[in-house]
């Protein structure tokens, strides 16, 4: 029944964030449901960070929670190097897509980047992406490794990461490749943590780079031709997101294929941060 605390934490944090956020509605009746949802999610994440050190101490028997989830900052130069290695890889992946579209004549022009859009892209990396990596590749990956072993834990963590981005506003035909791409992306990010010997900074760089750079592209930095096949840029014409495109899925599969041997050593880094008393859970 070791899974009960994991489930209970989610069942407590999300309602707690929702309840606290609705106090804002008392002072501002005009607040939109979307902003209220964002505030609730932020409060839930703050509560999650507050609980996390005690969680690591009691459940994982570790006195260094941040090291356990891959956020060691004792060597700042190493952390920056790992972050930018992931970020540069994200630039490379986006570059491949843009070069392919350019060669095929599907890029009409390049435009300048507005300062506000650049600031929003940075906030996406620092805020949303950083939080997601702490939750999914940090805490959740360790929990899944503890409960199910590393190999099954990787699959389950990536599955949960994919389903957490479920969208009801797109068709089933668009949703399937979108969730498939996110699942593969979850595997790639876990692979990134393996390459970085358990550090989470490379995941933040890779994830943040892809989200931030594509945000700039989608904001008008690159203007694609109307003749561009929609399946190259997203799962549907109404949803431009390469993570669910044919091209994006092929790139993710290629990354996993050429780095597949590293998965055989994933447990060495992920399992090492979990309490030794749970070693019998590892494959």
UniProtKB/TrEMBL annotation:
The chain crosses the membrane at residues 6-27, 39-58, 78-106, 118-140, 170-191, 198-217, 239-258. The keyword Cell wall biogenesis/degradation does not apply. It comes from the Bacteria. Signal peptide: none annotated. GO terms for biological process: CAAX-box protein maturation; proteolysis. Residues 117-209 form the CAAX prenyl protease 2/Lysostaphin resistance protein A-like domain. Pfam families: Rce1-like (PF02517). One of its GO terms (molecular function) is endopeptidase activity. Keywords: Hydrolase, Membrane, Protease, Transmembrane, Transmembrane helix. This is Metal-dependent membrane protease.
């Amino acid at each position: 029944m070791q899974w009960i605390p994991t489930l209970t934490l989610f069942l407590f944090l999300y309602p707690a964030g929702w309840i606290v956020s609705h106090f804002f509605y008392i002072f501002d009746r005009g607040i939109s449901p979307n902003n209220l949802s964002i505030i609730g999610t932020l409060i839930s994440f703050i509560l999650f960070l507050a609980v996390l050190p005690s969680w690591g101490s009691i459940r994982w028997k570790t006195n260094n929670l941040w090291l356990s989830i891959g956020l060691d900052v004792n060597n700042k130069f190493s952390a920056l190097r790992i972050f930018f290695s992931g970020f540069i890889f994200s630039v490379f992946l986006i570059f491949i897509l843009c070069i392919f579209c350019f060669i095929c004549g599907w890029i009409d022009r390049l435009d300048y980047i507005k300062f506000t859009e650049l600031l929003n892209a940075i906030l996406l990396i620092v805020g949303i992406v950083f939080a997601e990596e702490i939750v999914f590749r940090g805490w959740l990956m360790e929990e899944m490794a503890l409960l199910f072993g590393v190999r099954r834990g990787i699959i389950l963590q990536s599955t949960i990461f994919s389903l957490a981005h479920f969208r009801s506003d797109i068709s089933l035909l668009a949703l399937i490749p979108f969730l498939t791409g996110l699942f593969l992306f979850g595997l790639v990010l876990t692979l990134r943590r393996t390459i970085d010997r358990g550090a989470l900074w490379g995941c933040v760089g890779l994830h943040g780079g892809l989200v931030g750079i594509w945000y700039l592209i989608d904001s008008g930095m690159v203007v694609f031709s109307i003749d561009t096949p929609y399946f190259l840029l997203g799962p549907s014409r109404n949803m431009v997101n390469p993570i669910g495109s044919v091209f994006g899925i092929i790139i993710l599969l290629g990354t996993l294929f050429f780095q597949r041997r590293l998965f055989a050593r994933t447990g060495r880094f992920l399992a090492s941060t979990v309490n030794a008393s749970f070693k019998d859970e590892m494959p």
